[in-house]
Amino acid sequence: MELEYNISLPAQGYLRYLGEAICRTYGLFEPEVEALDDTRIHAVKSVLYVAIERAGMEAERSNSVQQMLRELLFLMNSRADPVWSEKQEALRILRELQNRFFPA
């Protein structure tokens, strides 16, 4: 019996792989499923590995963004009238964030 789960997820990003991993893994542990073939088990493991890798990449990106935002906050708090180099650093961080998340 082939089980289907309809999860509405974005086409990109790790959530797509997470949803696929959840659906396929549920399919292996449903009470109606008595015997599993090696091919199906291998397919589910492959999706789980991809989901793990994609989630790790997303976490790294998130940490990078978090660090940039902390730097901006530091630059904002460090001086009421920042020096030229601090302004340039803040502008560099802002451009990087904008290009990464809001490309033109």
Quaternary organisation: single chain
For the record, the count of structural domains works out to: 1
Structural class: mainly alpha
Uncertain residue ranges: 1-11
- Secondary-structure element pattern, one letter each: HHH
Radius of gyration: 22 Å
The end-to-end span amounts to: 47 Å
Describe the main β-sheet briefly: none
Query: What fraction of the residues are assigned to beta strands by DSSP?
Result: under 5%
Tally of helical runs: 3
Helix content: over 70%
Q: How many β-strands, per DSSP? A: 0
The chain-level mean pLDDT equals: 79
Morphology call: rod-shaped
Please give a structural write-up:
It is a single chain. The chain has 104 residues and is mainly alpha-helical. The chain has one domain. Helix content is 72%, strand content 0%. The chain has helices spanning 14-29, 38-78, 84-101. α1 runs antiparallel to α2 (38-78) and α2 (38-78) runs antiparallel to α3. The longest helix has 41 residues, at 38-78. The radius of gyration is 22 Å and the shape is rod-shaped. It starts with 13 loop residues before the first helix and ends with a helix.
